[in-house]
Amino acid sequence: MLTLRSILSLPVILSTSILAHAFASPPLVRSNVNSVNGNGNGNGNGNGNGNGNSNGKSQSDSERMFASGFLDQQHLRDKPNYAANFIGGERCGEEEMVWISAGFDEMNQLFQASRNVDWTGDAERDFFGDPLRITNYTGLIEENLLRATQYSNLKGSNGTRMPDIHIRCDDPEDYCQNMFKNSGKHAVYNIGNEPHINFCPQYFNMDPLDAQVDEKADQEKNNVMKYYNRATAWARQIMHFSAVGVAIRETVNPIGNMSTESMTSWTTTVTNASMNISILAGVTDEHPKTNGPNDIFVLKYAYGASRAKLLAALHTQMPYDTANNAETYALYAQARYVMARKGFYPNEPMLDSTDQAGLLRSKLQEGDNPKFNWVCYESLDTM
Ligand SMILES: *[C@@H]1O[C@H](CO)[C@@H](O)[C@H](O)[C@H]1NC(C)=O
Ligand SMILES: *[C@@H]1O[C@H](CO)[C@@H](O)[C@H](O)[C@H]1NC(C)=O
Ligand SMILES: *[C@@H]1O[C@H](CO)[C@@H](O)[C@H](O)[C@H]1NC(C)=O
Ligand SMILES: *[C@@H]1O[C@H](CO)[C@@H](O)[C@H](O)[C@H]1NC(C)=O
Ligand SMILES: *[C@@H]1O[C@H](CO)[C@@H](O)[C@H](O)[C@H]1NC(C)=O
Fold first, then answer.
1. Is 136 in the pocket of ligand 1 (CB under 6 A)?
2. pTM above 0.70, yes or no
3. So which residues are the signal peptide here (predicted)?
4. Which domains does the chain carry?
């Protein structure tokens, strides 16, 4: 839990409160894929389907439908026959399944566009950082992207078969309705850094990939957030799977007594870990909207393009913070897709990394426009 960053750049008292927060976050429950009717939580009206009473029926339909995986059977007749299956499907209705399957297919198109990384390119620099700064982590990032593209592998191909994905719409962690001031709601979230994804009502308001890309190419075409679509949401989820996203975890071994001022030096240990929420330190926000003293640092997690780009531009971030942020990969892949389809790079929001003081003062710290209401800016974790 103790990262080098938290020691170097935060007051000790705050580091302690962040640790306490991390420990206080809800337990990550690994769901039992086989018990579709089990532990339903009883929140039948919570997920936007409205008709809570019909859940019994739709679940048994679901069980039949999902018994042998449905990706290739029901909804994607004209789509590729992917090697990986979906399983589960708790409380996902028929139309929702279509939206989920189509988003998965589009996500595969996004990641295909992100192959052949050019570390001197604008998109790479904006999202992952200056080539000199990121140099020790380029291999890791490329491998992460490569594993993500393997979800495109087809049945019968000789490529790696990625783990089946357990999808669900029953919000077992109760995050879907989590509403923060000036912030959106979660559209999707990962459970336990394994292939479990919950789809929230907000996901079903997100547009299809090409509808979004073609429409936005005519208005505010340079703003990368305008292209955010259901495939982008999917892409972030995939990066959280331990079979896809590998993150850098640097822990500090203090020499001396930390609670007194006698901690004079430390050593660090670097290990690989899954891309979970405590891996990413987040962007420091110096302007909390509180009535109390305003000289405290608050870490804002890196949803949305502004925060993701701040990870790359701010010198107070660790060089590997971009490599550790699932949203960064999703936005990068989305930018590459727009480049391939439209022939230009949507370069806004633009951040000037030569003006560090300006970046720290900037409104960008607050995240992107709140009208992107699937971006949960105030969330304390990037799920
Ligand atoms: C890359 O790693 C080497 C070896 O650990 C280290 O000496 C060097 O400072 C690192 N470079 C950057 C830019 O982080
Ligand atoms: C971490 O992962 C990278 C890329 O997959 C690999 O090159 C490196 O050897 C791994 N490091 C450890 C300590 O396992
Ligand atoms: C997998 O199939 C492709 C195309 O059919 C072929 O080029 C490649 O050599 C195969 N790889 C392995 C490891 O068999
Ligand atoms: C560190 O210092 C505090 C305050 O003086 C003391 O209570 C604590 O026992 C010390 N811890 C260690 C491991 O020496
Ligand atoms: C994140 O991963 C690290 C390393 O694998 C682990 O120690 C930590 O408990 C994880 N945190 C959460 C919230 O899962």
1. yes
2. yes
3. 1-22
4. 88-255+265-366 (3.40.390.10)
